[in-house]
Design goal:
single chain; 197 residues; mainly beta; Protein Transport Mog1p, Chain A; eight-stranded antiparallel β-sheet; three-stranded antiparallel β-sheet; 11 strands
């Protein structure tokens, strides 16, 4: 699983602009293979495939309100030679913050806690940022981006990790309960395997 770090400066967190020329609608729970996992699209209508590369799979959906968007994504990363699960996961979380585009995103709040998920060690995270360059920003000049998910050490390829994330952009700071339910199903349907490792 020798892939480069892909952090908050991916097309996924940049509002999907330029990720694919034409989004492709996908049926609920459509399986897509990537490095180290098989990912299923969210289990509801209205999602489209925005990115499908060996190291990242992302689905996007517009919300009911103007400028409101949702992204469900999984990114594979490679970090060699860190034996401790705690140090491995901390390194990835620190790199996410370090590599964030501070001219675009203003971090408001982030939480990380170590958990066991799908038989491996993970950081469960949630965050709130201001996207100061969002194309859908209203009079405030920014949009809020909320994200929740997991950074999990791969159970087979111990130098690899998967960043599994649901993000939501809108003019308010709330992460909708209905989207949290969709996120839970999305994360639970991801299957770790040795695809491409």
């Amino acid at each position: 699983m020798r892939v480069f770090f892909v952090f908050l400066v991916t097309c996924v967190t940049l509002g999907l602009a330029g990720c694919t020329p034409i989004p492709t609608d996908v049926a609920p729970r459509t399986a897509v293979a990537m490095l180290g996992a098989t990912v299923q699209s969210p289990n509801e209508n209205g999602w489209s495939m925005r990115v499908s590369r060996p190291e990242i799979v992302a689905f996007g959906r517009k919300g009911d309100n103007p400028g409101e968007t949702m992204v469900a994504a999984v990114t594979a990363v490679y970090v060699p030679n860190i034996k401790s699960d705690h140090a491995f996961l901390k390194h990835i979380a620190d790199q996410r913050v370090k590599n964030d585009d501070s001219t675009r995103f203003s971090l408001v709040k982030v939480t990380n806690r170590q958990v066991s998920f799908k038989g491996t060690q993970c950081l469960k995270f949630s965050g709130l940022s201001k996207d100061n360059k969002s194309p859908a920003a209203g009079p405030s000049g920014f949009q809020y981006m909320k994200n929740e998910g997991y950074i999990c050490r791969h159970p087979i390829e111990r130098n690899g990790a998967l960043i599994m994330e649901m993000s939501y952009r809108s003019g308010n700071t709330n992460f909708p309960a209905a989207l949290r339910s969709v996120a839970t199903g999305f994360f639970n349907n991801i299957q770790f395997n040795n695809n491409g490792t």
